[in-house]
Structure prediction request, 201 residues.
Amino acid sequence: MFDRIVRNIGEFTALQREIGATTPRVSLWLTGLKETVDQLPDFVRLAARIGVKEVYLQRLVFDDLGRGLARGESSLFEKTRREEDEAIAAAQALGHALGVAIDASGATEPGISLKRNQDEAPWSACRRPWSLMYFTAHGRALPCCIAPFSARGYETYTLGDATQQTLREIWNGNAYQEFREALIGDTPPKPCQNCGLRWSL
Prediction:
C-alpha cells in the first residue's frame, strides 16, 4: 500500500495548492529506530517531492514487558551512534534546502528528542491537553497516544466518551480540566510521570 499512500498524499497536497487551502496541515512521521534512522534524508526528499512541508521523527515507544513488535534494542533514545547523529543532521540540512521543516514529537527537534530531558518536571512541557484530542476507535478520549503504553487501566485516564458527549463537552469537562491542572503541578497524572524520560515528549 506504500506507493498508493504516497500517490494519494501527493494528489491531496496538489489539490490544496490548486484551491489555496492551508488546512488541514499534512505531515509525514518516521518512527526513529536503529533500523530506520538512516532513511530519514530520503524521507525528507519524499516529503518535498509530494508537497509535504513537515517531517517528524517520532521516538520509538516500547513496552518493557516485551509485548508487541517494538523492542528496546531498536530504540535510539540515549543510544545514538555517530552515523545515526549524522543521518539526522543530514536530514535537517536537506530539509532546510528543500523547504521541509524537520521536527520531533513533542516540543523539540530530533537530536534533542533522543536525549534524556534533565528537567526535574519534564512532563510540564507537554501542550497536548491544551492543543489536541485523542480518541480510541470506541470513542474513549485519552490525553495522548502514549498513555496506553505508559499506564495500565483506561479508566484511570479516560477524559470523556465521544459516543455520549460532544467534543465541546469533553474538552471543557471536569476530567480534562483536572487532568490539565495536575499536569502542571508537582504530581502529574500517572500516564505522564515518565514522559520526557522514556516516552514521546
User: Anything to note?
Assistant: Confidence is low (pLDDT under 50) at residues 197-201.
